[in-house]
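Researcher: Next entry: CTCK domain-containing protein (Xenotaenia resolanae).
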Amino acid sequence: PSSSVPAQACQDCTCSNEIDPSSGLFKIVCEFQQCNENCDLGYEYVETNLYDCCGKCVQKQCILNLNGTKQLLNEGETWSSPENMCEHYTCMRNGDTLTALNSQIICPHFQESNCHPDTIQTAANGCCKICVEIDKACKLISMKTLVSRHGCQSEHEVEMPYCEGSCNTFTKYSEAAAAMEHSCSCCKETRSSNRTVDLLCLNGGKITHTYMYVEECGCGHTECTTTAGLRARKKRSSMLL
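Model: Predicted structure:
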């Protein structure tokens, strides 16, 4: 009694103290093996094959333990702590093992004194600082060009200033709205006036043409869409005709 008895696979059999009336021998009691399906964090219990009594725990995720807080990452997933967006952890596979590899973002040199006021912001990577540099800010650019229209052309080049430069544009996650927040602005005229110029035609005639003369430039809010950018470029092209 109480001794282990050889049995079929995946069963544990024991000689009991109970007597079988028909044979007068101790009964053999069998039960199927109990598989431990409780796996550690990041592991999952899976069945292996028909010949194994129990499955096994297989690693499915990387486990990060940062300052007592555990973070799970799927294979190929990259994660950064909100407190340090310059540090990244990526879950990579090496054979049967998943390991979280650490990497750091190295930001280019940032000189705040070179920035245009109120344009300093965090880059899309959430780590580095960027801004519109003073020499690249929105400003009025002088230009002279011949004006042509309907086969007629100005006798001399006409002064036709235009706006060029960078403005403050960003895309970031808004916790309040639980969505991405977009803010776009473009360099455009803030003050202009209409001017006229005489155009000489091939038949010896003359026509008067009115065009927009840009006097001042600045950053103005615009929609963050591709079509908005195309409209702005087309508008500028028409001004030069």
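Model: Note for the record: DSSP finds one helix and 21 strands in the chain.
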